[in-house]
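I can't quite decide. Please look over this sequence plus structure tokens:

:::
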Amino acid sequence: MTTPLKKNLNSCRLFLIVLCLLSIFFISCSSQRPVVTKSPDPSSHKLLLRDEGLSQLSYVDLKNPEANWHMPVPAGRDMQLVGRRRVLIGTGTGYEEREILTGAKVYELNAFNGTIAARRLRNGNTLLTGLNWQGKQGIVLVEVDKDGKIKRLIVYPGHNYVRLVRETVAGTFLITADDTIFEGNADGTILWQATLTGRDKPHAWQALRLSNGQTVVSGGFTANFQIFGKDGKLLDTISGPATVKPHFYAGFQILSNDNLLVTNWQGHGANFGTSGIQVLEYNRNGDLVWSWKQDAAKFSSLQGVIVLDGLDVNQLHVEDANGRLAAVKLP
């Protein structure tokens, strides 16, 4: 004879069994769903922008425009987060460091007239780039410490043009030299090389190495990205559409979602603010997924960009093995 107590125990057991089965079912379903990586929200971008046409550095917060500022700066190339809430900009005599919050200058090195670009290295020293410089012929890289003392000098002879330099995770250097992109080591040996297609004297701007061995280049007057394989052969190009007026693809950044965000420079001088759309974001399929139209009253011709979203401005940032900006601790 079944007592009420036994009936209740049996009901409880049945309920627990059903509950366990349902839990297993839902866990199994969840494990089969793809993991979705949230992409950055472009409407909330915080940007540092270098305007070559106006010789201007700007901070733009798309959600909080009252925080925006615009500061005149010396002519020069490249910019980088170097920690302590500062951005480094190359100048014609070395480099400056400026506060991200206000744009105020807090440090400068001006003893190297003829500097084309400047970049902070992983070891905390700064690499200055020049041409037929420091008593040498060709592309000349000068590594200086925080006091401006020369620690190393690297020469790549036979070149008559240079723009930006990027230190790879292997400690080599990717250098853009007009229609040529090459990787060199510290003794001046060239380890890898590729040639841009589609334009004579394109003035290639910036190159980044990816973990798969490919190299992404903003091609200057080719008005596109050119992507090269390990063998130096062209694999793909990314550009367009015509409505953005592709003109000169300059400084770019690989975002956390692997999209490519680039400045589309339009010309020298102060009167290009109405020309083209000057900040463009592409996915790896080559689709334009976002763009930002500059205010012609505040900008002329953008040359460099840093998207600050998710980056710790208290830390030095360099490109990692995937070409993305990553914080590094100084030795």
Notes: Helices lie at 4-32. The first strand starts at residue 46 and ends at 51. The chain has one domain: 42-328. The radius of gyration is 25 Å.
